[in-house]
Amino acid sequence: MRLLHTSDWHLGRSLLGLSLLEDQAAFGEQLIELTHDFHPDLVIILGDLFERSTPSEEALNLLDHVLQRLLLECKVRVILAPGQQDGVSRLNFGAWLFERRQLQVVSNLEQALSPIMLEDADGPVHINVVPFLRAADVDRHFRTRNVPTHGKAGNVIMEHLTRFRRLRRRAVRGVVAGYLWVEGGRRCGEERTFEGAEESTVPVSAFEGINYAALGYLHEYQQFENVCYSGSPFAFHFETTPLTRGVVKMEMDSQGNCHSELVPLPPRRHFYKFSGSLERLLLGPTFPLDPQDLVVLELSQDSDLLSSDLIVRLRSLYPNVWRIERPEIGRTFQARPTQDPISSFEQFYHQAVGENLDEDARGLVRELFSEVDA
User: Fold this and answer.
1) CATH number (domain holding residue 110)
2) Of 75, 195, 235, 278, which is the most exposed, with the fewest CB atoms less than 10 Å away?
3) In this structure, how many other beta carbons lie within 10 angstroms of the beta carbon of residue 134?
4) pTM of the prediction?
């Protein structure tokens, strides 16, 4: 069996006020091209598919376009499992009709406990898909169990699935595709916390007897034992050292042995962060930048105040500077609560942008601060 595994698209997300839809559309084309080349039996897309539970029309249209091409052009079976940021009821609309086109949307516990059957040249494969599920719903379903956290809920579900597999007389290859946080998995800081916070992990031992686990939720690619996170194909913050991102491809033989690897897909543009003193940043980047790359500059505390001339020099060295930050200025404001907040903001604006606020902008700032004080 051949499988492509991707997750956490967050369609419609913005980065410091910049829409990422064009970057996400470029990835969709790469995914379709990879599907053409790899000829998988199945493509699994795990949540969070959208950035919000009520996605924008543009985000919906992008998902619709990618799914149409996967189903009609690539003629591949696709499974979707929503995450905690997806509007499950909206995503599940018309699921019974989509299934006729080889698109299956798994959005509730009953579906998660019923395996999807896939037949390849080596025989049957059972695929259980676990979307984001609230601990209270899992607790209600299993009745006598105490399920206070996401981790406990995931463990209960996996115990049920593995116990069912042990009771079978004939071994069948098994795959779990889940929106789960597994013990040992690293968060990169972009993920939204689950119920129960740090106690919300599922032990790796819960996947005993499963040939392969394709997981979503964590945004960084990582794999341990038979558990694999594809990670998000997108960077949602400006990075000092960009992560390698892409789609995971997995091949399973007749005995259930699996080989998986990340297929790197170069992004439409990188989002870099360069930190240091003003003197260091004025030396320029240590590697060539693509004209499409966006840059955030973070000045250290010992840096001089920026003049308009210095900002021009920085912009000539770093094409497409999106923002210049001085983190210690925020701490200075906190350390001097008696300072006039409007004057502090004007000072910050001048240091960051190299210009003074005009009268209209100054009036708007005064209005905003007056509302906060009220």
Assistant:
1) 3.60.21.10
2) 75
3) 15
4) 0.82
DSSP string, 195-264: TTGGG-PBPGGGGTT-SEEEEES-SS-EEETTEEE---SS--S-BSSPPP-EEEEEEE-TT--EEEEEEE
Report how many domains make up the chain.
2
**Alpha-carbon span 310 to 12, nearest angstrom:** 35
**Whole-angstrom Cα distance, residue 130 to residue 81?**
7
CA distance linking residue 313 with residue 12, whole number of Å: 34
Q: Are residues 28 and 167 in the same domain?
A: yes
Give me the domain span that covers residue 350: 271-373
Closest CA to 125 of 253, 247, 261: 253
Q: Are residues 189 and 56 in the same domain?
A: yes
Structural domain ending residue among the three candidates 264, 297, 331 = 264
Six-digit token string for 163: 């116990």
φ, ψ of residue 100 to 5 degrees: the values are: -70, -20
Q: What angle do CA 47, 266, 78 make, to 5 degrees?
A: 35
Considering the domain architecture, whether residues 161 and 193 belong to the same structural domain is answered as yes
Which residue type is seen at 304? D
244: left (phi over 0), alpha (psi -120 to 50) or beta: beta
Asked whether residue 285 falls in the same domain as residue 143, the answer is: no
pLDDT, the chain, mean: 86
Read off the pLDDT of residues 11-57 as tens digits, 9 standing for 90 and up: 999 998 889 999 999 999 999 999 999 999 999 999 899 998 888 99
H helix or E strand, kind and range, residue 83 = none
Instruction: Please tell me whether residues 281 and 246 are part of one structural domain.
Output: no
The two tokens of residue 84 are 């905690």
Which of 233, 264, 295 finishes a domain? 264
